[in-house]
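Appendix B.2, paired examples.
Example (i):
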Amino acid sequence: MKVFKNMKPELLKGWHIIWWLFKLFGFPITMPWLIYHFFDIMQTKRRKATLNGKVVIITGASSGLGEALAHVFYECGCKVILISRRKEELERVKSALMNTHQTIPTHPPIVLPLDITNINSLQTEVGKIIEIHGKVDILINNAGISYRGELINTNVDVDIKIMLTNYFAQIALAKAVLPFMVKQQSGHVVCISSVQGKISIPYRSAYAASKHALQAWCDSCRAELADQNIKVTVVSPGYVRTALSLNALTGNGQTYGVMDKTTQEGYSPEYVADYTLKAVLKEEKDVLIAPITSKLAIYLRTLCPSLYFWIMQKRAKKSEKEA
């Protein structure tokens, strides 16, 4: 009060105007938002409790987003199955989970070293999980590989490898799990796609094509199995700060080995993992985690494709000059 008493009359008048504007416009907006936010937090806590004891398969769990997903679901009391080709890294993640999160009861994560591109073995590997836990509640298809290159100079073998990892292996694992979900009349399939599953950009042809295919398959799966109480969520993040670009394939099949600036400045894996958890809890169907520019590009591709094509043509020329 002393502060206001010592104010000059013109300043005090300004504060009165601000306070009047806040009462007129601020309260009607702020109060409903605060109430909604409070109830949303409470509802999220209740939904998290329902995850306790759920069996969750996570592919690509040895690092990056897969590791972050393992943490958020294990913290909720889930029985997680960690899948990746790198056994040593999976063991590291398992130790980190058990040392970081104190869950009651404790469900030690299961490490399952597996190359999901060995499609013919997936049915057997899923059978092992069923023998241990008797069910699968959530499948998170996160494993994937990226690509950088000119499509005209890219070996078809590279296109096939990208499609095998990002599409065929994903749906093969889902098809191995889905009969058990249908039998129990419940289940949730989560596929980690990309913004490039919705729009294509230059020099990402093989990657974008694989993510387009995954998006389409999920849309069909969601519709066909809705009556079986099977939920399908596609999560499409923008750039995520992982080793994805480092491990990307080039046109001749070699490793790209470069951390792109866009990747380095992307979302943290923990942020995307938390967002994904919320999407599962809310049973959302299609989730986009991207900056406003990417969202505008998606709308532009739909509403004014000719302008979008022109922008991508300019981007391709610019990237060619910088290369």
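Example (ii):
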Amino acid sequence: MTIKPFEIPCVILSGGKSSRMGEDKSLLPFSSSNTLIEFQFNRLKPYFKDIYISSKNDKFDFLKDKTKLILDKNQEVYSPILALQTILEKFDKVFIITVDTPLIKISSIKKLLENSNNFDITIAQTEEKTHNLCGIFSKNINNIINSMIKDDIHKINYLVKNSKFQIINFNNEDEFLNINEKKEYEKALNIIK
């Protein structure tokens, strides 16, 4: 079966502190991969024309092509807003996903993409929560991001609510499982088996 890749690039966010995990979750072994980031990158790569990793530093041994790494300009502050600022200076429109959501189906990504045309942000939501960092982001939000950074506002929800946004509902909570703690990591490992 031939895969027709999505036209927009994918960026995997992998620059967080992992404070609840107690160690860098992107470097934890996952499924048949040496690390969670390697699993996520290789899983998504066939479905996008271009795929990148956003991080504070280069900690990815498997990533041979260093042009696929987007390093945050600000190294001191941990904020997805700062990562988005760097990313959206590079791309007009991009699919954003976090390293710690490795179970999201390609069909769900496709649904987000197909419904994103008239919006600056299109994100996923399940009954339990809104997944602010799983969706399509447009460079039209650059001014809001720059203003937020100037005012030291780093809440992704603030960005969403102040943009032309749309939420797409999904039913499967497990698909959007976010690996923040050991118990979620173990649950994800059991699901992926």
